[in-house]
Amino acid sequence: MKHRINKMAAIFIISVIGLAGASAGYALWYDELHLDIDVHTGSLSWIFEYPVTLADVFCPPDYYPTDFPDYLCDPNLGFYGPGSQPYIGDKNVGCGSATLVDDHHIQVTINNAYPGYYNHLDFWVQCTGTIALVIDSLLIYDGSGNLIAVINSMGITEFDIDGDGYNDMQIKWGHPFGEPGAQLHPGDERDISFGFCFLQPLAQDDTIVLYLSLLGVQYNEWVPPTI
Question: How many domains does the chain have?
Fold first, then answer.
């Protein structure tokens, strides 16, 4: 009988210990944990910077045609014209101006535009955020603010600037920073430039007003354009 009581006492003690352990585990499991931490998020932003320049800003009658002749491209083929490069013409008719509207828009005005007229735009971009970015696309708006072209592939792109259904402007766009996916790091500044010409459907002596912007993408979310 004594042996049986000792055995039952041992079982009772083990049970008590087990319940005590379970209670401690339960208390730890449901206890509150407070952490004081700082969470910092990055910002993705860029701005245009001066200078913003066009190659041809000279118009008559201030200059004789032979002083600053227009550069031309084939009015039917654009950059695929003679030698696949713009060439010096024999007249000075067209000219242009470029200015910053705000940090994210450039206004380009071409006076006396005509089929075959060529010009070249140059501007600067700075990364003002804390996250590196990739310039994904060149965005082009007409004078009323309507988006008329999104250019993100290297080479020649043609598009319609007056809404008549015919492509009348052509841009030769390269990768802004030298190679696909090249990054602009916080505080960095880069120079971007491209040439453009007008094609045969454009009317003679037209005045063209365009607004340009850029689409910047976080460096690790950029996807190469599908060719």
Answer: 1
